[in-house]
């Protein structure tokens, strides 16, 4: 029976993701708006053409008089999960499959994090996985596939960092691989948010446990050590990107108004948490959960 229950978890996630993305996965429809159409399809098509020709896409001759390709981290040239999809499918289908794969990764990681960090039973952990992977904030980033790819690995970091204190070097290596995957996916902001959020969580837990006389600082050390190892693992992407940044028009930073131009406004809090049906909302402002989830939150707090 326990084996059947364990098997039911991935089957549940697979069925949920297939249903959620059914209109894309099982039809001839493609995503056709904004960055996915004007940015990622062209980059993924060019990268796939270079790889099929046996070349690493270092340079993009099709934009202006030519621009660096690999050094643009958002292209995700060195992200290992991109290569099989690029080589086997056209860009629109590759992107849809990547979205499905990473929603599965996100749901599974959240399930493991719920089991380890919150000591949830299987059913609540499955629900947590579905809520993280298929509620507003994560799938809203399908248009920015590199953000979705990076977000998928965040719950895995929670699961690893909340694991047993045994074999600390193995845990540090796992953290390094997960952070490197986030960096190679090509969305540095998600990596920054993940590291800062994890550090705050671990520091707060250590402080609370220390007040009770049982603080453990080793998870913080694991995160720090894993971060340093991740920089080494992703050096093939990081060094060219740093060189490009130093030579780009943004080398000195951006004016304050431009830096804040896409910031989330507190005036959008109600629409971000409970967006109305049919109302347009910039995808990076979406923070909504289903009403049933909010009801469960209320029940849990009571």
Task: Produce a short descriptive summary.
The protein is an all-alpha fold and 302 residues long.
Distance between the termini: 33 Å
- Helicity, as a percent range: 55-70%
Structure annotation, total helices: 15
- The dominant shape is globular
- Helix/strand order: HHHEEHHHHHHHHHHHH
CA radius of gyration: 20 Å
Biggest sheet overview: 2 strands, antiparallel
Strand content: under 5%
Main attributes of the structure:
mainly alpha; 65% helix; 302 residues; globular; two-stranded antiparallel sheet; 1% strand; 15 helices
Structural commentary:
The chain contains 15 helices and two strands. With 302 residues, it is mainly alpha-helical. A two-stranded antiparallel sheet has the order 1-2. A hairpin with a 6-residue loop joins strand 1 and strand 2. Helix 5 packs antiparallel against helix 6 and helix 9 crosses helix 11. The longest helix is centred in the middle third of the chain and has 27 residues. The two termini are 33 Å apart. The model has no long low-confidence stretch (mean pLDDT 90).
């Amino acid at each position: 029976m326990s084996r059947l229950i364990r098997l039911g978890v991935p089957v549940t996630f697979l069925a949920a993701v297939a249903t959620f993305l059914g209109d894309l996965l099982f039809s001839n429809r493609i995503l056709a708006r904004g960055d996915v159409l004007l940015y990622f399809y062209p980059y993924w098509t060019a990268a796939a053409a270079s790889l099929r020709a046996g070349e690493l896409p270092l340079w993009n001759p099709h934009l202006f008089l030519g621009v660096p390709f690999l050094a643009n981290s958002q292209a995700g040239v060195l992200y290992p999960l991109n290569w099989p999809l690029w080589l086997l499918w056209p860009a629109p289908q590759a992107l849809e499959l990547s979205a499905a794969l990473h929603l599965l990764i996100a749901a599974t990681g959240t399930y493991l994090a719920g089991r380890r960090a919150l000591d949830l039973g299987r059913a609540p952990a499955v629900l947590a996985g579905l809520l993280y992977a298929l509620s507003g904030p994560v799938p809203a980033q399908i248009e920015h596939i590199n953000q979705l790819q990076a977000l998928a690995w965040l719950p895995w970091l929670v699961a690893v960092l909340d694991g047993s204190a045994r074999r600390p070097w193995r845990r540090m290596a796992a953290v390094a691989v997960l952070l490197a995957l986030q960096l190679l996916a090509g969305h540095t902001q998600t990596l920054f948010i993940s590291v800062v959020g994890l550090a705050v969580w671990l520091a707060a837990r250590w402080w609370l446990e220390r007040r009770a006389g049982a603080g453990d600082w080793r998870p913080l050390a694991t995160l720090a050590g894993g971060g340093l190892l991740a920089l080494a693992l992703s050096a093939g992407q990081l060094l060219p990107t740093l060189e490009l940044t130093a030579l780009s028009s943004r080398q000195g930073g951006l004016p304050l108004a431009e830096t804040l131009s896409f910031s989330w406004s507190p005036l959008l809090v109600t629409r971000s948490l409970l967006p109305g049906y049919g109302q347009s909302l910039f995808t990076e402002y979406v923070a909504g959960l289903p009403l049933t989830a909010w009801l469960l939150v209320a029940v849990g707090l009571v």
